[in-house]
């Protein structure tokens, strides 16, 4: 899963009970799904782990010991960070599109993902989209490299037809290298017949 982590170093005291002498704090913001990841903060004098929403770790500088996680006032925090949160970039989003056996034709299920890719591009105003083609291990390596390129090209063409600019997309292809599901040679594995689209 992707997590959104907001790290803010303040250069002024935060007016909050029990925290008046601290100049800097680090707080996690939940993802769009409401989940919070984990972050380890390390200085020259020690470290602390932050993994709860509504908690912050305070530090004076890199030579001080980070505080234990401390509850912070949500309303004050939101008010303080509202400008930063508005401009905080969305995390990259990855999509896996699968293909029919020995073909550059998308499966029916993967065709339905195209609108979601376009929505991710629109939301991020993305100018950095990678399209990476793959195959399973059936067939010759050279043939599979060509097939993985053709699969990536198909996805590129679909997005291009939907007004995604060509200069904002990069095509890569790995043939039967970088398998999603490791298999022996000549084993058919539908999940390896894929293109990954990464929208940043």
Descriptive overview:
The chain has 200 residues and is an alpha+beta fold. 25% of the residues lie in helices and 20% in strands.
Describe the structure concisely.
The protein has 200 residues and is an alpha+beta fold.
Number of H- or I-type helical stretches? 4
Q: What is the fourth-level CATH superfamily of the largest domain?
A: OmpA-like domain
Rg result: 23 Å
> How does the overall form come out from the CA principal axes?
elongated
| The CATH topology of the largest domain | 60s Ribosomal Protein L30, Chain: A
> What is the top-level CATH class of the largest domain?
Alpha Beta
Instruction: Give the low-pLDDT segments.
Output: 1-22
Largest sheet: 4 strands, mixed
Intertermini distance = 15 Å
Count the E strands. 9
SSE blueprint and pairings:
Blueprint: E1 24-27, E2 39-42, E3 47-50, E4 55-59, E5 70-71, H1 74-87, E6 93-98, H2 108-111, H3 114-124, E7 129-133, H4 141-161, E8 169-173, E9 194-199
Parallel strand pairs: 7-8
Antiparallel strand pairs: 1-4, 2-3, 4-5, 6-9, 7-9
Supply the key terms.
200 residues, alpha+beta, 2 domains, 4-stranded mixed sheet, 3-stranded antiparallel sheet, elongated
